Structure formats: structure tokens, C-alpha cells
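Q: Sequence in, structure out?
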Amino acid sequence: MLITELIVGVILIVIGITNYRGNISSIHSYHRHRVKDEDVKPFGRLMGSGTIIIGVGVIVNGIINYFGNKALVSVGMLFMFVTIAIGIALFIYATIKYNKGIF
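A: Exactly. Output:
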């Protein structure tokens, strides 16, 4: 299980770094095409930051699950859920701000 979480976390972090640097090709085309050219960088930074935060949460959860006891496993799951919530909040904020709405 640790290997799977590490792989997923690293993939998310790599995608997040790519988005953060301005390459938003991994984001759905509907959202990409609605972003103005001058807003691509800030949109990518927000989306990339959210993806990186989620990736870190997955990795930390995997490490805590592997090495921790039952009490720590609950902390790891809570940490992962919090990072996922923060990442999703950044996604929604970026989409509303630069796409003028979610849909």
C-alpha cells in the first residue's frame, strides 16, 4: 500500500509542478479554453498548488499508515482529508475566478 500511495503522490506532485509552471495541458480542455491568455500563469499556479498539496497529503498518509500505530493512522487519514479539502477549495476558487464560474 505504501508504494501505491507514494507513486500516486509523486505523480500528483509532478502534475502540480507542471501546472504551477504554466503548462495547464493536464487540466480539462473546457476549463483551459475558458482562461484568458494573460490568466494562464495565475490559473496554473492555483491549480498546481492544489494538486501539489493533495499529492503531499497522499504521501504523508502513506508513510504514517506504514510506520504508525492505529492512533497515528487516524491522524494520517485526517491529514489527507484536510489536504484534499484544501486542494479542492483551490481548484474551485481558481475555476470561479478565471473561468467566471464552475460550468
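The first helix runs from residue 2 to 20.
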